[in-house]
Amino acid sequence: SNATSNKCLLCDMNCKxxxxxxxxxxxxxxxxxxxxxxxxxxxxxxxxxxxxxxDTSSKQCKPCNDGCSLCLGPLLTECSACKNISLTVxxxxxxxxxxxxxxxxxxxxxSTVPNTCSPCSPQCVACEGxxxxxxxx
Length: 137
Known about the structure:
The protein is mainly β. The protein has no helices and 16 strands.
């Protein structure tokens, strides 16, 4: 409600609830076109920004796990891309949406593509540096 006129005013069309002014959203509903909108820093958005994922139960943008720069959910197994945080570097598993500080068995840290693991050559159980440098065969 508006304190000066003592009248209830409508929230912005994407806001389900708001306070202080029409665009300071507290919760989001559906857009005028019927798609779900998510609360991000008191604004209702169709798509959450990088570093956040769409939480469908709360209809809010929630931050990715510390190891993810892009994600589909809160877990390190739901990352689309990995990031470096302070001194910790995360690597994205080849073929999976997982970020970890090490690559899994059969994959190596690819120095030419940042934050990614690449598969070892078929003759290697484990490798290091390049796909054909077997550390276990």
